[in-house]
What does this fold into?
Amino acid sequence: MSTPVEILLVEDDPALRTMLRGLLELNDFKVSEADRRTTAMALLRAHPAIRIVILDFGLPPASHDMSEGIATLKEIQAEIMTAKVIVLTGQDQEAAALAAIREGAFDFLAKPVAYDAILRSITRASLFLQKEQELSLEGITRIAVNAQAGEGLKGIRSDAEERLVRQILKETGFNVFQAAKRLGVKRENVYYFMKKFGIERDD
Amino acid sequence: MIEQVYLYLILVGVTIGSVMAALWYKARKAGRVNLALIRLNEQHAFDAPSFLGGAWTLLAKSGLRGLAWRLDWFGVVAQGHGGVAKGRSTLREITVGEMSVAVTFYQHEGRGEARYFEETLIETFLLLLRMDMLIKAGTTDAALSHMSRLNLFLQHDMKNIAQFIQLMADQLASVPQGKEQNVLNYLRMATPLIRHRADRIVRTLTVGVAPVDTAERVALRPLLQQLCGLYGLAHTIDGDAEVVLAGSALETVLDNILKNYLDLGMRDNIAGLCVEIAIRERSGMTEITLQAPAAPPVPALERLFEPFWSSAPTGLGVGLYQARHIMESQGGELFVSQPEGSPLCFHVICLAAPR
It folds into this structure.
């Protein structure tokens, strides 16, 4: 029997959270719950096995706007967590979709949505993660950066460098020797990048 | 010789007295017209278009020859006039937001005190018009802002309810074999929660409407425990009692207070926020006090029950206002106290149930 996919459900409405949890558990997913950003981040840090986050954008203390949901998404991206984020929100569809894509969400679903659509999104995210891991074994690391065209390439290069170094260091458990090997640079260079980008072991 | 001077002095005195009397009479007349204009504006409920339409009768008494106006009221243009379009004309324009008015006054050619009194009246008239337009702009802005907040609130909550129904339908449509009991358990857990959410929406939409349920005995401790549990609020309850009031009334009131504590805890990230609840009976009434020692003092205590005022940027500001009115409609009270340096304390007073 395969290990169930671990999902974190970040939703402030207890009724909806309970209902969605029930559906996911009936479909053999392992579900954790959070009703706000701090709890969600604590769970993600404590359980790296969480593969997928279903995130509502309207979280307290700003349940009626997107700010807290976007902050959660940003924090997940900043910590280079491998979990894929599926945004499931009732906020203004256009604005929420734009924010979700900009901040690196894997998928965007507007409430109300059928369970099948949620399930399809979870399946796609799982497959995506699996393929990313396979690529990682081949030495390929996917990174995502938001580039502002027209502002030169230096900034984008720097952002991409930082993202890649952070990601590789995270994947190697901050083993500088392995990170240097995967990056194809000397260990001194890794230390240089760590200093340049302010990367610390506990990042 | 001296007799001649007396005569002259008397003549000067009589002239000055006559002039003063005439001025006093005219000033009094102008004052009365000014006051009448203010009263007329009040009668028209500070509504600029109707005030404008009804003002000529009074303005004519001041000696103005004529008046013509052109009003652009949120894109609709209206025009009107009174008297004759003759004499010295003065055009004055006022614009506030999407409202503008251009008024032309036709005055006599005269100079001196007549002109002075006319201009005083014109300024009063224009000041009243500007005030009406500012009032309209203020109320329109406030109404739009409240509508926008309410819309946001409803959009979030209604979509969650729609999502809940969608998921429930999906769940019931395909219950896996042998997992029927699990589905039932989830539904038992989730449906009271969604009912509570739906109740909140109804309460928000019926703000100002007193509950129509008949009075019944309500046990306080279980109700408080249930509500605190629903919000996951740490709490202590000292004492217990039963009260008599409309079924949903007390639940609405306590729910509002506890939700405020929950929002406060989340917004200010207060660790260890615990609501201390005390229940005391005295002279046929029961007092419930709710206080969170870890909560910061409320800076604008006097605004706590003001409708549409909220310390939270996304708050509707109707909850506590509504709660106070509900308690009053039930013969009870809701008030707050905040002694110097202490946190805010809510006091809910209701009729104690007979033993």
Notes: Chain A is about 50% helix and 15% strand. Residues 28 and 190 of chain A are 42 Å apart (CA to CA). Chain A touches chain B at residues 13-16, 18-23, 25-26, 35-36, 38, 58, 60-65, 90-92, 111-116 (CB under 8 Å).
